[in-house]
Each structure stands twice: as C-alpha cells, then as structure tokens.
Amino acid sequence: MRPVLILQTGDAPDDIRSRHGNFDDMFLHMGGLDAESATVVHIAKGEDPGDPGDYRGCIVTGSNAMVTDRDPWSENAADWLRAAHGHSLPILAVCYGHQLLARALGGTIDYLPGGQEAGTLELTLDLSCMHDPLLAGFPPRFPVNLTHSQTVVEIPRGSWVMAGSERDKRQILVYGSLIYGVQFHPEFGGGVMRDYLDLAKREEPERRDEFESLSSSASETPLAVLLLRRFISRLPDRRPVPHRN
C-alpha cells in the first residue's frame, strides 16, 4: 500500500517539540498512523516530495513561517500542491498548509484583523456539510484548537466554505473530493494548546491576561481528531487520476 505523505512546512517551537514531539509526530499520534504507513518530507528544509502519484494522500502541516513572505521553499510547496490538486490527490492542509493550498489555487492570504487567534474555540458549521464525508453527523458547533496570525481573506474559485469561527469565517475550505484546508489544528491535544498559549503570553505580553484565560479553558478536541481520522480512513489505494481539461 502506498504511504500517506506528511508534507512538513516547519517545526514546532523547541519547548513544545521537547514535550510533545514535532508536527509529524503529532499527526502520526492523533491520526492513528504508524511510521511505516507514512512518509515525512520536510519541504521547508529542501526535501523533495516527488510524484504525487506515489502517495495515497497528503497531510500538510503548520509552520511558524508566513505564507505572504513567499519563501522559495514555500513557493515550491505551492507548485507541488497545485500539481497534486491537478492529480486529484486527497489533501488535508492544516493552518499554514490551509493558507498555502488556498494561495496555490488562486486565493488571497493576509494578516487576521485584530491579531493572533488562539485557544480552544468553537466553529460554526455551514448546513451544506451534512452530507460531507468528513463532517457528516457533526453538531452545528464544535471546539477546535487554533493558533494563527494569517488567514484566507479571499477563497479560490471552485472552493467553498464549510465552517468559521467568530473572528475567522473561513476555517474549513473544501475543494472537491477529499481535498480540504482547515485553519485549526486537529493534531493538537489540550496540553499542546496550553503550551502554545504559554508561548503566546511571552511573545505578546500586552495580551497576557487574554492568553491566561484561554489557557485555563484549553481542552481536547475529539471531533477535530475525528475529522483527521476520517480523512485518513477514506484514502484510496488507487493512484490519483489527473483532471482532464
């Protein structure tokens, strides 16, 4: 069976990595994947993922980089994602990956008004999700773990919005069969979220009280994990077929 690609676009901060592992470790753990069934390609370090057809599907991680900086490695990743989308490869793109996939397919990325959105926050689902393979049966509102400063401000043509938070209305984008971008982190447990909020308190001391309050309410997000596991469970073993013009 072909592996699942974890396309790594950055590394977790040192103190988080020492306690919880890197992003690939979190996805393996929360996704219920064993290391033998996945291939990790650290594209931010110049590694090449190769042919999209070599994989059953692709998970794109978050990053501490900014999509609007258009770093050379990020532009290469956008090119690869554009090609993977053209081959109908199933994709679950997370946080930075969500923004990068949107930009690769024609969307616009910018900073989120009001600054960083972080914590265990509720999403509101669009009614159209009731028949979606990853979201069917979800309640109208459910919690997710978030930490991001940029967002998709204009969605690509041919995509549609499935969920939003109070401050960011484009939290889940769907592009077609098993191709999704999610702004939240299904791979973050409550402990990871609390550690990110502790980091945010140090980086933005003027918002310390806000982040302290958010840290006290940080929690596990089982439905976000279910979305990740549903994505993995639905990956086909057949090679993806390129779109016909």
Describe, in plain words, how this protein is organized in 3D.
- The protein has 245 residues and is α/β, with parallel strands linked by helices.
- The protein has a single domain (4-233), classed as Rossmann fold (3-Layer(aba) Sandwich), CATH 3.40.50.880.
- Helix content is 31%, strand content 24%.
- It is built from seven helices and eleven strands.
- The protein has helices spanning 14-20, 23-31, 72-86, 96-104, 190-203, 208-216, 222-233, and strands at residues 4-8, 38-42, 57-60, 91-94, 108-111, 117-125, 141-148, 150-154, 160-164, 172-176, 179-182.
- The strands form two sheets. Strands 2-1-3-4-11-10-9-6-7 form a nine-stranded mixed beta sheet, sandwiched between helices.
- Strand 9 (160-164) and strand 10 (172-176) form a beta hairpin.
- It is globular and about 50 Å long.
Which helices and strands occur, and which strands form pairs?
Elements (H helix, E strand, L loop, with lengths): L3 E5 L5 H7 L2 H9 L6 E5 L14 E4 L11 H15 L4 E4 L1 H9 L3 E4 L5 E9 L15 E8 L1 E5 L5 E5 L7 E5 L2 E4 L7 H14 L4 H9 L5 H12 L12
Parallel strand pairs: 1-2, 1-3, 3-4, 4-11
Antiparallel strand pairs: 5-8, 6-7, 6-9, 9-10, 10-11
Helix pairs in contact: 3-4, 5-6
Query: How much helix, percentage-wise, in residues?
Result: 25-40%
- Rg for CA atoms: 17 Å
Low-pLDDT windows of residues: none
The total of helices stands at: 7
Main sheet: which strands, in order across? Answer: 2-1-3-4-11-10-9-6-7
Q: DSSP strand (E) fraction?
A: 15-25%
Order of helices and strands: EHHEEHEHEEEEEEEHHH
Overall mean confidence score, pLDDT: 94
CATH topology: Rossmann fold
- Terminal CA distance reads 29 Å
Q: How many domain units?
A: 1
Name of the level-1 CATH class = Alpha Beta
Major sheet summary line: 9 strands, mixed
The rough form would be described as globular
CATH superfamily: Class I glutamine amidotransferase (GATase) domain
Content-based structural category: alpha/beta
Q: Quickly give the CATH architecture.
A: 3-Layer(aba) Sandwich
Number of strands: 11
